[in-house]
Design goal:
two-stranded antiparallel sheet, binds adenosine monophosphate, alpha+beta, 42% helix, globular, single chain, binds magnesium ion
Amino acid sequence: MTIHFPFQNTYSALPANFFARVAPTPVAAPRLIKLNRTLAVHLGLDPDVLESPEGAEILAGKRLPEGAEPIAMAYAGHQFGQFVPQLGDGRAILLGEVIDKDGVRRDIQLKGSGPTPFSRRGDGRAALGPVLREYIVSEAMFALGIPTTRSLAAVVTGENVMRETMLPGAVLTRVAASHVRVGTFQFFAARGDTDGVRKLADHVIARHYPDVAKAERPYHALLEGVVARQADLVARWLLVGFIHGVMNTDNTSISGETIDYGPCAFMDDYNPAQVFSSIDEMGRYAYANQPRIALWNLTRLAECLLPLFSDEQDKAIEQAQFILGDFADKFTAAYQAGLRKKIGLFTERDGDEALIQDLLDAMAKNTADFTLTFRRLSDAAGDGAEHEVRDQFTDPTAFDEWAARWRQRLADEPQSAAERQAAMRAVNPAFIPRNHRVEAVIAAAVNNDYAPFEELLTVLSKPYEDQSEFAAYADPPLPDQRVLRTFCGT
Ligand code: AMP
Ligand code: MG
């Protein structure tokens, strides 16, 4: 049986140095463990076909769907500040692009599908744990309303991969608006290939920033667009307590989606300096450092675009600096607007920023759970009962003092308590993919029990609803359940 995907590929039509043509390496005994049926339908794919044995073979890279033009994309990147001129998809293969039900072009990529010409030391494979982590967290981000790559499927390969220990191998099917990263631009810029930079810029303008094509200076407008989307994205991360963990330039998407869920995690207690990633020893990618790092990564993108800005380098640099200068304002505006909503303020008054900062400071000092504090505050805004918020603070009087000021400020707001509560509940999730839950799901899956994985996905698909039967999923970890370190998929 041949299975046809409605591919309409454009990246594989770019010049040959943009990628390497390479097919996935077949695996021994693929078994589909999860198909995102809703997403399949959205992509114009038949979920029943994908669930057939032949479909599972496609999702494992054992068989190619008709119309696929498999490629590994070339890219470079700054990893923890160090430039690596050639990275590229070392364990991922783009099968092709489809147009989804919204008319948006989407990449369908297999991750963990075998070596490519860009694999340097790795085996091109992925272990089951990181595949499930990416599946869970990317789908949770989607449900939270945050731009992200999606997960279409997870397959176990029937083969083991050697890491510190032997682990079951798996393949994730990732769906993205595109896989073009800041590092893709760096690949061409580092080779002095201005024509490559221009072709790539034209490709992403057509694909992600079509309005920019009409601008007087399209390449400047492209940088403005990427700056705006990244500023908004990082603000959204902070507003839900998300820590990406590896904000290298090769993990910074030009489309503005969250990409590459490695050692990422949501924090439990609010701590601006929080780091989980085992490889981030200096705290470069700590929670509160993320806006600064996003700007650093955007500055690397701007450097690549300089030759397209002007033949006169001084002029080009000045123009780039001007555009990058907008990042701070855009980030702060998005972040502050989000925080105001989190505490139920619809209007803007002097002193709001200080009020919010004082709450965050009290939370940090009193190890308050980030998610629960805001969720319980939403309920307190409705019925006035504050004991559940107070309980989040080691010294509840720290909350009481703040709450008195908050109540006074709310008195100026036109909304009813019920309206305010509903608005706050719509931005303050009850359920996030807490690390200890993710770890427990992975531990069960490695023992072939996927029921906890399914249940966690169900809970996280409606993060803003109370789901009383799953109330325990909102709880922070007990002291012995706390996860202190997360690891990359490598
Ligand atoms: P990532 O951590 O997925 O962002 O990967 C960073 C770089 O390392 C990319 O070039 C990957 O393709 C490469 N890489 C990561 N894991 C492997 C692996 N198991 N085999 C081959 N290359 C890998
Ligand atoms: Mg990466």
